[in-house]
Amino acid sequence: MTIVLLGGQLVFAQDSKTTELSLQKCVQMAVAKNINVKTARIENEKSKFKKEETRAALLPKMNFSSSMTDNVSLPTTVLPGEFLGKPGTSIAVQMGSQYSTTATFSISQILYNQTALTALKLTQKSSELSSLNVKKASEDIAFEVAKLYALGQTTAEQRKLIDQNILRTERLRDITKITVDNGIGKQIDLDRVNVNLENLYTQQSNTKAAQEQQLNMIKYMLDLPLEQNIVLTDTAGMALLKNEPILQSDF
What we know:
By secondary structure, this protein is α+β, with helices and mostly antiparallel strands. Helix content is 54%, strand content 19%. The strands form 4 sheets. Strands 1-2 form a two-stranded antiparallel sheet. It has a two-stranded parallel sheet with strand order 3-8. Strands 4-7 form a two-stranded antiparallel sheet. It is rod-shaped.
């Protein structure tokens, strides 16, 4: 946090943080955030669920059902009185029970179903293919990030060489100018040095723009804000990958 005094008022300014990135870290971040990798992972999960769904068709099935009936008003039947020892009369009798329950249970097992077996084999192959697609998508983005990382570091080395050449040429210009002013050197030599120096300035500007563009591409692939400062810690002269990056395949 930076505190600046402007017009007698304190202004708080948030310092921009610099993120140091090795190639290993870049690859892992890109694999975790790349949309193609995420899509491949989702498709892989869907194929796994589809395989389990197909396999479930060959598993034993159990069915259970039950019901309960509440006869609020029992049916009434009129019987002759002779049945109950009251000849010459009719007697109303309610028959049945108020509550009744039923329950059924069944189990079944498919012994052989060629269609289901074929479908299971197809879903297994589809699941294996989806897993390979996740690995391929991860390797593709890792390759692109590594290539861009190496290009950025190469450009940084080129920029250093150009800066060094500018310093040497500026010294040569100053020396040549002194010799020309003293009548020892020729103006054409000074003009030639100045032309070379202008060419180096142009190369320096172009290299700086290319480096910024490459860093912005890395930020884009890592889903980082463009205003965030990043520093590539691995150099062009070192082994960029000492160990194989860990490509996580889960969400």
